């Protein structure tokens, strides 16, 4: 998914054979995967799915990676029971599928998750990390929720909103140079707008030679040449969160 207004489906990539270390819980009207670090923590990160849904093992792996680094990780079902995109579905039906799954129409779910993290998990700081569809959602949350401490948006842009630069907390935007769904000019336009108007810390980073989904949907053992960039992107994510949380 490239933009909120011009969505594109994307290849599922390398699906991990991974079970996850956390558990599924009910958070008000939303189901969620929650994983906690080995030691008590007052810091939590909301991990937002791509179009393939909250149960994709690759996304749960990223939540577990965050827990291994001291954060409570929570991956909610932001589709609220609606079916995620299936790689075998007809691409021409994607816009209709997206119509009631817009990444900028998640306020009720975000509010529920924030209440859960505060009251049930004791979280005092909350960050957000999102991929593809979730990258757009992360950008949206950064615009709407000043109480969210930091964000990392992987390959997702809100392009058409005039206030897209008005992020309320520091955001790291990670993109791939060879992304068929987010052309380089969109990345440049976002960076130029942020540079001119943004009042909080941000960073826009473009990874050369990489494609959409590389940081969470590409397996290093299948693509060893890409391993350094995959690890670099994940390290950038962790360093950004550590800096601001």
From TrEMBL:
It is found in: Cytoplasm, Cytosol. One of its GO terms (cellular component) is cytosol. Pfam families: DLH. InterPro entries: AB_hydrolase_fold (IPR029058), CMBL (IPR042946), Dienelactn_hydro (IPR002925). GO terms for molecular function: hydrolase activity. Residues 31-244 form the Dienelactone hydrolase domain. Keywords: Cytoplasm, Hydrolase. Its main location: cytoplasm. The keyword Magnesium does not apply. PANTHER family: CARBOXYMETHYLENEBUTENOLIDASE HOMOLOG. Belongs to the dienelactone hydrolase family. This is Carboxymethylenebutenolidase homolog. It comes from Tetraodon nigroviridis (Spotted green pufferfish).
């Amino acid at each position: 998914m490239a933009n909120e207004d011009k969505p594109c489906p994307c290849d599922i990539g390398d699906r991990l054979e991974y079970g996850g270390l956390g558990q599924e819980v009910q958070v008000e009207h939303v189901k969620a995967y929650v994983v906690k670090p080995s030691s008590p923590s007052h810091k939590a990160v909301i991990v937002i799915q791509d179009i393939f849904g909250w149960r994709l093992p690759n996304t749960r792996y990223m939540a577990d990676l965050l827990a291994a680094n001291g954060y409570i990780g929570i991956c909610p079902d932001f589709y609220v029971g609606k079916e995620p995109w299936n790689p075998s579905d007809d691409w021409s039906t994607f816009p209709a599928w997206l119509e009631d799954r817009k990444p900028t129409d998640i306020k009720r779910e975000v509010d529920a998750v924030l209440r859960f993290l505060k009251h049930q998990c004791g979280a005092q700081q909350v960050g957000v990390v999102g991929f593809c569809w979730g990258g757009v959602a992360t950008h949206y949350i950064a615009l709407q929720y000043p109480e969210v401490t930091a964000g990392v948006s992987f390959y997702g842009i809100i392009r058409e909103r005039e206030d897209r630069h008005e992020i309320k907390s520091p955001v790291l935007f990670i993109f791939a140079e060879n992304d068929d769904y987010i052309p380089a000019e969109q990345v440049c336009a976002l960076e130029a707008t942020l540079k001119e108007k943004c009042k909080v810390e941000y960073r826009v980073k473009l990874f050369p030679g990489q494609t959409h989904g590389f940081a969470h949907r590409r397996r290093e053992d299948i693509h060893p040449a890409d391993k350094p960039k995959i690890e670099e992107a994940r390290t950038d994510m962790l360093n950004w969160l550590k800096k601001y949380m």
